[in-house]
Amino acid sequence: MQSSMEPNTIDLVSYLTFFELQDYITKRPSPNLETLTKVVKQHTTKTFYQNVDLQTKAVRGDTFLKEDLAISSIQKTMIDDKRGGMCFDQNLLLEAALTALGFNVKLAAACVLPYNPEQLPTHSVLLVEIDSEHYLVDSGFGFNNIRAPLKFDFKGDQEVTVLGHERYQLIVEPTYYKINHITLEGKDLGYSYFMREGDFPRIATKDEVLANYERGMNNKKELAIRDSKLYVGGYKGEGRIGLSFDKKLKSGNLLSQKDSISEVIKAEEYKDFGEFVVAAKKYFGIEVPAELQKAYECKE
């Protein structure tokens, strides 16, 4: 039973079953690129991103603790309760699964672009080594999830294409790396950045990543992901959809993008928070708690 396991030990059978990787239960796969690609694809298409729970915790006045990111807690939220998770949840669960499958996985503390030298890390990425080659993995971007490992050697600017049409770019800056997604029209969409140490990303321990979460989420400065912008998004059917709502603007929308099509369609607009609540339930099965609804519906 999961309840009898150590807090930071993954229930691999439950994980593989939920992400439709049952073949790996009876015959454990080799930790090669084929396996990595399949696990990343399943993980990024069978669950979704949401910061509803994060903001609910903030509204309740709870303190954010490292223990929030115990693997057993993440697995309960994402697998047992089918509620998806934010970037730390997504990537730490994926890191635990890949490690259990025999992969050499390291973590790098990251931030969401644009670059700000005073910004505390509120993100993380995975670096997987296979036969002396390195792959960046990041399942924490919801609507814009990276659904395949990205091969980079980190020694210079590089571009890779995965899934036949999705282009990603690594840019080497003097003290950090940044990751961009390039649309079919050639537009750069900034994803994240992480620090350099020589010609390779600066590696972070698990304790450092957990401390970043605790420190960043308890910071008194306004943080959009925790305080004012709600996101629920992921891969559904034949493409991506993403819901958002901005507390200050008192508006939100639903974006849709089909596979192999660059155009992002604003399929729905929300001028009332109640419409967002209904959509979150309709598209992702997410119940928005009453206290968070009250916080977003209050007149400022």
Protein traits:
single chain; 300 residues; alpha+beta; Arylamine N-acetyltransferase fold; 2 domains; eight-stranded antiparallel sheet; five-stranded antiparallel sheet; globular
Summarize the structure.
By secondary structure, this protein is of the alpha+beta class. Helices cover 31% and strands 28% of the residues.
**Biggest sheet descriptor:** 8 strands, antiparallel
Strand order of the largest sheet: 5-4-3-2-9-8-7-6
Number of continuous helical runs: 10
Radius of gyration: 19 Å
User: Which secondary-structure class do the elements indicate?
Assistant: alpha+beta
Overall pLDDT score: 93
Which stretches of 5+ consecutive residues score pLDDT under 50? none
Question: Per CATH, what is the topology of the largest domain?
Answer: Arylamine N-acetyltransferase fold
Order of helices and strands: HHHEHHHEEEEEEEEHHEEEEHH
Total E-strand runs: 13
Number of domains: 2
Globular, elongated, flat, extended or rod-shaped: what is the shape?
Answer: globular
Distance between the termini: 47 Å
Q: Report the CATH C-level class of the largest domain.
A: Alpha Beta
Mind telling me which CATH architecture of the largest domain this is?
Answer: 2-Layer Sandwich
Strand content: 25-35%
**Residues in helices, as a percent range:** 25-40%
